């Protein structure tokens, strides 16, 4: 058995990016999820708390927002180019 130990740093946002869309298996798309904070809500699989989007790899400037939570107060324009109103 292996154990991974990583130092935790204070961050504003945590994210996971899949290089293949896990929902469809489409390797021409990326799928990303972003949460405010250290990522506990992301890795804890709490429904409805992550901003998630899909983008074609050849059109990264035109992501399609899939889910977002108004309660999270996410504004990630500086980080991934997406702002929710």
TrEMBL record:
UniProt KW keywords: Kinase, Transferase
Coiled coil: none
Entry's transmembrane regions: none
Top-level taxonomic group: Eukaryota
GO molecular function: alpha-glucan, water dikinase activity
Uppermost EC category: transferase
Protein biosynthesis is among the record's keywords: no
EC number: 2.7.9.4
Alphabetized PANTHER family for the sequence: ALPHA-GLUCAN WATER DIKINASE 1, CHLOROPLASTIC, ALPHA-GLUCAN WATER DIKINASE 1, CHLOROPLASTIC-RELATED
UniProt-recorded name of the protein: Putative alpha-glucan, water dikinase
Organism field: Rosa chinensis
